[in-house]
Design goal:
Layout: H1 28-44, H2 59-66, E1 74-75, E2 104-106, E3 111-118, E4 121-130, E5 135-138, H3 161-164, E6 170-171, E7 182-183, H4 187-191, H5 195-199, H6 214-222, E8 228-230, E9 256-258, H7 282-286, H8 290-293, H9 317-324, H10 338-342, H11 353-357, E10 360-365, E11 368-371, H12 380-386, H13 391-395, H14 401-409, H15 416-419
Antiparallel strand pairs: 1-2, 2-3, 3-4, 4-5, 6-7, 8-9, 10-11
Amino acid sequence: MRQVKSCRMSQPHDCFDTLGNDIVSSNPIMLRLCCLTAFSISLLSAQYTGSSACKTCHPSLYQRWSKTRMANVIRDPREHPDAIIPDLSKPNPIYPFTKDDVAFVYGSKWKQRYFKKIGDDYFPLPVQWDVTHQTWAPYSVKAGTDWWVAFYPGDNFKRPTGTLCDGCHSVNYNIQTKAVTEWNVGCEKCHGPGAVHVQRPSRANIVNPARLDYVHASDVCVQCHSQGRPLKNPIEGKYYDWPVGFQVGLNLHDYWQLEDHKLGETTFTHFADGTGHKNRMQGNDFVDSVMYTRGVTCFSCHDVHGTENDADLLKPVNVLCLDCHGPRSPNGPRAASLEQHTHHKVGSPGSECVNCHMPKIEQTIPGVNVRSHTFRFISPARTESLKIPNPCNVCHADKPAAWALAALKQWPGVSPWRIAE
């Protein structure tokens, strides 16, 4: 269904006959009525309703989503007694606390942090649980790291989650009242306000990211999976670390700027070549990738409603990659078989696409890294010249970069120019 361009609508609407002919643009009265209706709908659609309202019409999607980490980023241990992973009956040596101190638990895959409610705000305790290594570790954002540190005292209890976290871990966070429609990444975080859609279900009154252009579609994820800062800061006297005012369908670049980087410099956020240096850099990486410029979106690979695959991938990782990058594909690789391309046995870690093109080099907590999202192969030569970790030595950690570079030079069918980069 076409748009009425003179209305400048962001959503298609029913202004065409059954043959698809425009019945509005040539009729000034109809055009005015259509625009007024569209304006009324846009005002009403600013009302949020909560994910539970979606369950009636979308029960299978709701059930899958409800089990995802997106739906369980923040959990109240009073409602979910199993939310706290470590055994609190054994005091930790860093900052002892009890369950009664915990208003919210944050995270469950890589690390777990604990928020204490003081007044109408939440504050992170100065300790975190390392899920991978099953141990306690200090938690405090150090000076010279995140940009916002310069505007807050060093004490965790003077760094509220409202300004620094909650906008991404909730739906419709109100910076004046600190109220939310719901905690966690609910349906309306990605589909926009849904009250009108619940009352009158139609494609015209809800945002479907799959129908957006690739920039706005990926921005649904980039709004939170990126390092940056609001264009206008401070906002009402406070410094926020999330895009205040943005909702899907709007232009993220009107609210948010990605963290700057100067090529050749290694910083808290970036390696010298621009690859992310830490977690929450997926968006920064991705918009710099060839994948992004070709129109691939985050949900070309992921389904946030939940799947049985790691990272909610649509398919097992190699199956997913090889759908577009099979042997002799125009998209690459150029080799006749996967084994010829990777020079590792099929089924081995060295033959998994992500281990070479998405190595775990971006730190989420000390000793635990997550995958990069540039999809570029980082040559061991870059490790020697720019100190960027390369995927060969992520696996062959006992070998130097020079060994990996020499091995690559022996591989037939590999460009010596790319290896040398």
